Amino acid sequence: MKAIVLNLLAWIMLPIMDGFAKYLSTTIPVLQITWSRYFFTVVIALPIMLIFFRKNFKWTEQPKLQLIRGLLLFSANILFFYSISIISLAKALTLAFIAPLIVTILSPVFLNEKVGIRRWAAVIVGFIGSLIVLRPGFVEINLAGIAALGTGVLYGFYLIVTKKLHKSDHPLLTLLLTGVVGAIIGSLIVSFIWVEPTIKEWCMMFAIGFFASIGHLFLILSLKYADASKLAPFGYFEIITNIVIGYYFFSHFPDNWTFLGLFIIISSGIYIFRRETFKRSN
């Protein structure tokens, strides 16, 4: 029960981060918002590591993979923050939910896993769900929708790399190093587009890093009490928090097509998860 509570708390915290990012996108450049997410993550996560988890504070055994993971998540965040600056939080997240489908496509190549016909069928159905959300030919496809799909693709690669790192590095070290990679890259480019924030905007930029750090910390702690495979379906709870924030603060509510596409994408993702769990248990 403790694992489920911690996991659900994570999926409450992370959409709050997205809400602040969407609000700031009207006055602050997306790259600057992304920089704040990583810079303040390091500011918050480093003291936590030094005070409470010092024994895990050691250099990574896989520096190249950590760098790739950081680059993937940094790029995915840029695309997602750009997408939510234009379209609703719910629509952007729905399209980004193709990530588990991307993992299934990539797993034979990068993880040497066999994917059967049923899981391939689920992947195809999931992509049909994303097409229902986009509705090409019926509504104009904009860059924001493509960016949200791109987020899911990059996040799929990110999950593949994370699986490879799981056996070598402590998750908290991975969290910190991902923040460091993003903070360094962001700091190199943010000066070219910098807009001086107000005190209120500084507080919101800090809040983005804070909720990112706390959300991921809850995820890591939840894995102490249950396997990732058992907690994976709870990740879809994020859409509920996302819809509430979008409706309450931005007056956005998903249309029926988005709900239909969301249902199809989530159903295919859960089916893939159950098939993978079944194959591991046999």
Structure report:
The protein is an all-alpha fold and 282 residues long. The protein is built from 12 helices and no strands. The chain is globular, with a radius of gyration of 18 Å. The protein has one domain. It has helices at 2-24, 30-52, 63-84, 89-96, 99-110, 117-134, 143-165, 171-190, 199-222, 228-231, 238-250, 256-280. Helix 4 (89-96) packs parallel to helix 12 (256-280).
Distance between the termini: 26 Å
Strand content: under 5%
Give the proportion of residues in helices. over 70%
- The low-confidence parts are none
Q: What string, H for helix and E for strand, traces the elements in order? A: HHHHHHHHHHHH
Report a brief summary of the structure.
By secondary structure, the chain is mainly α.
Keywords:
mainly alpha, 12 helices, 282 residues
Which helices and strands, and how do they pair?
Layout: H1 2-24, H2 30-52, H3 63-84, H4 89-96, H5 99-110, H6 117-134, H7 143-165, H8 171-190, H9 199-222, H10 228-231, H11 238-250, H12 256-280
Helix pairs in contact: 1-9, 1-11, 2-3, 2-8, 2-9, 3-7, 3-8, 4-7, 4-11, 4-12, 5-6, 5-7, 6-12
